[in-house]
Design a protein that fits this description.
There is one protein chain. This protein is mainly alpha-helical and about 100 residues long. The chain has a domain of about 60 residues. It is built from four helices and no strands. Helix 3 runs antiparallel to helix 4. The protein is elongated.
């Protein structure tokens, strides 16, 4: 006797189904890592640091608007992005002191 499998069985839920939102968030995360490597390499270039601050702020707003539930997770965008923005501002201050 064959058993019927319901459409929403746990085996079906185990499959990954990416939506457009998921793809956008994954792409943003990958872009963040790639850009972070560029900042690591070109950390003395001021416009790269300003672009870093702008990108981190934009990414934080994007996540807050599209996927706000992750804002309360461990290592969430609020704690990581604000920390990186603060470090970027410290780096800018340090570069300005060396210049002047």
């Amino acid at each position: 006797m064959a058993t019927k499998r319901h459409k929403n069985s746990p085996k079906d839920k185990a499959c990954l189904h990416f939506t457009l939102l998921d793809s956008l968030l994954v792409s943003a995360g990958v872009a963040k890592v790639v850009f972070g490597l560029c900042v690591f390499i070109y950390f003395r270039v001021r416009w790269v640091i300003y672009l870093n601050i702008l990108a981190l702020t934009g990414l934080l707003m994007l996540v807050a608007l599209l996927y706000p539930v992750v804002l309360i997770d461990a290592f969430n965008p609020v704690t990581t992005n604000i920390t990186l923005i603060a470090l970027s501002l410290i780096l800018l201050n340090s570069l300005n002191q060396k210049k002047g």
